[in-house]
Structure formats: structure tokens, C-alpha cells
Design goal:
The protein has 315 residues and is of the alpha+beta class. Helix content is 40%, strand content 22%. The protein contains eleven helices and twelve strands. It has helices at 6-29, 43-49, 75-83, 127-140, 153-163, 167-178, 182-190, 198-202, 211-217, 225-241, 303-314, and strands at residues 33-34, 40-42, 59-62, 68-71, 93-104, 109-120, 146-152, 208-209, 248-251, 264-270, 278-282, 296-302. The protein has a nine-stranded mixed beta sheet. A three-stranded antiparallel beta sheet has the order 2-4-3. β5 and β6 form a beta hairpin. The two termini are 14 Å apart.
């Protein structure tokens, strides 16, 4: 934010300090342990996991060995790379952190402050529901006018695997889904050899709303076992969340800029902003590069966006 005078700027940073401490204290009371994340990532390590990210947006530098490092665009990647090489089976971590991420935005380097929550090594029937409950309790502290969008990457993964797209088509389709470009997706798919799973892919932007509405929209469309698994996981979430809040909607076309999500994905919004205040999901498959699959789920609270809304409301 830009400030006209020093006094306003100092008031803003005091509000940021209070906001950060409120969330930290809440997470500490919920049994999460605090860690301090690194601001550096290996360029190759990061881009090999997140192949769809715009590589030109990464902030690069060289270390003394001429290895390419980047200022972290995503803290979760660094946490996994930090702990997984030393992981011992049976370990369970409930973590929270404050950190900054960095990206080139076309003008300069943009810093983004965030609080993060990660549960690694634990998965039972309630883990997904508990992480969503924690996210809901945080966002509801700052606004009664909020909304959660929830998806499941297994549904889309099931379609894409069944279609057996080549790498170029796969990447182009995922980009169009991320951009929510309905018309271009339809035109792109029309040029490809038709396969039965594409009947669902062509209609995927219509698969949003309440869980009941999605089930109705799926009638007659292609579904395979992996897609059904994603739907069943969302059904369990829906049954739980209805006891927590009615401020939820589902979106089976949801795609993240980050490539490592494998299961539930969610975003939280509040009135006064069109950007995510909370975003996260499950990323079990990310850990497989270290030799074994460890359950992992988490989310971030976008502090800069949240404070902008709160700050404007007080003006």
C-alpha cells in the first residue's frame, strides 16, 4: 500500500503486527508448532515440482557455487524439501509460520506476507475436515461475509489421465482451466480427437455450486474411479462443513498455479476483495519424490490482502 504520510504508514504496520500475533496465538493454542521458513529455494527443485509456474516471475540469484537459487515463491515447497530428506516414518508435524514470498510482477519484485499452516504425517478420517475448520475459524474472525470454494484435484486428474493428452495439450488445457477461459477451452478441445472423458471436460465449468447441484450436473457424464474418489471425498467434506458453515460452494474445475496438489483444494474469500484470503489443499504426492508418500495438507493466510480489506473498512 502507498501512504501519504509516515503516521498512516506506522498505523498500518501496527495493525499488521496485531493481525499476525492474533493468528499466531490462535494457532499456538490449537497445538501447532512455530517454525521459521527459509527465504531461499533451489531453482531446479522448485520448478521440477511446479512445472506450470511462470518461470520469469521467479526472483533468481547465484550462490558462491554458481548454483541458481530463487527467493521463495511458495513456502510449502521449502518446508517439504527441508523435512522430507530426514523424515522418519511415524513422525507427525503440525506447523505454523510467518514468512514472505517473492515474485516479479512485471514492474519489480513484489513481496507478499503470509501465515501458513501445515499438517504433515497425519491422515485420518477427520484431517481434511479439521484443517478446513481451522481455516474457517480464522477467516470468520475478520468477516461474517466470507465464502469458501472447495474442489478436488483427483476429479480433474481422472479426466486428464483418461484422455491421455500429450504434454503440450495437457499444459495448454491446464492453463485454460486455471484462467477459467470457457470459450478457448471449448475451441481447443474441438480440435482434438474426441475421447469419451472429454464429455465431462467440455462441461467442467458448469460443475460448480452446491454439492447437490454438482451431482445433478454430473448425470450422464463420463466418470472413472479416480473421479468418483474425488467426489466421495467432497461428499464427506460437505457433510462435515454443513455443521460448520453454509458459506461454501464447490468447483470441480479448480486449478492452482502450483502443481503439487493431490486431493482437496480450497480458497477463502471475504467481501471487499476479489483475491483469495486463504488458499491451500492436500499435497501427499509431493512427498513421493523422497521415496515414500507422506500425507500432507495445509493453507496460507494472505496477510497483505486481508489487512488491505480491514484497513479500508476502518477508513
Amino acid at each position: 500500500m502507498n501512504f501519504l504520510n509516515i503516521e498512516d504508514e506506522m498505523k498500518f504496520f501496527q495493525k499488521m503486527f496485531v493481525l499476525r500475533k492474533e493468528i499466531e496465538n490462535f494457532l499456538y493454542d490449537e497445538g501447532y508448532m512455530n517454525i521459521e521458513p527459509s527465504i531461499f529455494e533451489g531453482y531446479d527443485e522448485f520448478t521440477s515440482v511446479n512445472s506450470r509456474i511462470n518461470k520469469r516471475s521467479t526472483v533468481k540469484l547465484l550462490d558462491n557455487n554458481s548454483e541458481i537459487l530463487i527467493l521463495s515463491p511458495d513456502i510449502t515447497t521449502g518446508i517439504v524439501n527441508k523435512f522430507m530428506p530426514r523424515w522418519e516414518l511415524g513422525t507427525k508435524l503440525k506447523l505454523f509460520y510467518y514468512g514472505k514470498t517473492y515474485k516479479h510482477n512485471g514492474i519489480g519484485i513484489k513481496e507478499n506476507r503470509e501465515m501458513g499452516v501445515e499438517i504433515i504425517g497425519e491422515k485420518n478420517q477427520n484431517t481434511d475436515e479439521n484443517i478446513l475448520n481451522t481455516a474457517t475459524r480464522i477467516i470468520s474472525k475478520y468477516s461474517n461475509e466470507y465464502l469458501f470454494e472447495i474442489g478436488n484435484s483427483k476429479f480433474l486428474k481422472g479426466i486428464m489421465l483418461a484422455c491421455s493428452f500429450n504434454k503440450e495439450d495437457y499444459e495448454n488445457i491446464m492453463d485454460l482451466l486455471y484462467l477459467k477461459n470457457r470459450q478457448e477451452l471449448k475451441e481447443y478441445l474441438s480440435k482434438l480427437t474426441y475421447k469419451e472423458p472429454m464429455s465431462t471436460l467440455v462441461n467442467i465449468f458448469d460443475l460448480e455450486g452446491s454439492f447437490e447441484q454438482i451431482i445433478d450436473q454430473l448425470e450422464g457424464l463420463y466418470l472413472n474411479d479416480l473421479m468418483k474418489q474425488g467426489i466421495e471425498e467432497l461428499k464427506s467434506i460437505d457433510n462435515y462443513m454443513k455443521n460448520i458453515t453454509d458459506k461454501i460452494t464447490y468447483d470441480l474445475s479448480m486449478v492452482s498455479e502450483l502443481s503439487y496438489y493431490d486431493g482437496i483444494i480450497f480458497r477463502g474469500y471475504i467481501d471487499g476483495s476479489n483475491k483469495e484470503i486463504i488458499k491451500g489443499g492436500r499435497y501427499d504426492s509431493f512427498t513421493e519424490q523422497y521415496g515414500y508418500k507422506i500425507p500432507a495438507i495445509g493453507f496460507t493466510v494472505e496477510l497483505d490482502e486481508l489487512i488491505k480489506v480491514l484497513y479500508k473498512e476502518e477508513q
